[in-house]
Write a structure and sequence with these properties.
Layout lengths: L2 H24 L2 H28 L1
Length: 57
Amino acid sequence: MSAKEKAKAKAEQLAGKALRKVAHARGDETTAAKGAALESRGKARETKEKGKDVFKR
């Protein structure tokens, strides 16, 4: 996995988690869902990059 893509995936995961936690604390379920989606997108990006690494070997 390239370092740039790995960093981007982790950043999305952390941003999504933070957004979700803050939104839950405020009681804003719509924003919490957006945060969860952002976190999931980061996890999907990480999985995709790991899959690409497997086929490079």
